[in-house]
Amino acid sequence: MPTQEKVEELSKILESIIAILAWDDEKHWQETIIKIKQDLDDAKIASAIRRLLGIYGGMGSFNDLVIGQNYKNGEFAWKDGAKEKNAELSTLRTKAYDLAIALR
Phi and psi dihedrals of 75, rounded to 5? Predict the structure, then answer.
């Protein structure tokens, strides 16, 4: 796949990740991904790729994120649809990482 197609695909994947993070009201990672996507869309590809790859790995990193968790009446509870959203997020994270490696 040519580089420009990879960049466009990565931008779409990041947009999907942003939507999932918004679903869970996950502000920190949402803001981080928005900034990376802006760099990518502004043709600051090297910077975007470096920043994207930098959020993977280590404790508390983006690939550790589990969404859809909350507390109701003092007890842990999952939001409706959390299992599906986490599966989708996992798939998108892997695709984003793989594309970033290919673009590096």
Answer: -120, 145
d(CA 17, CA 35): 13
Closest CA relative to residue 61, chosen from 73, 52, 71, 74: 52
Closest CA to 52 of 27, 34, 64, 70: 34
Tens digits of per-residue pLDDT, 32-91?
999 999 999 999 999 999 999 999 999 999 999 999 998 888 899 999 999 999 999 999
Residues near 40 by beta carbon (within 8 Å), at least 6 away in sequence: 7, 10, 11, 14, 48, 49
Q: What is the pTM of this model?
A: 0.94
First to last CA, the chain: 14
- Helices 45-54/27-41 angle, 10° precision: 160
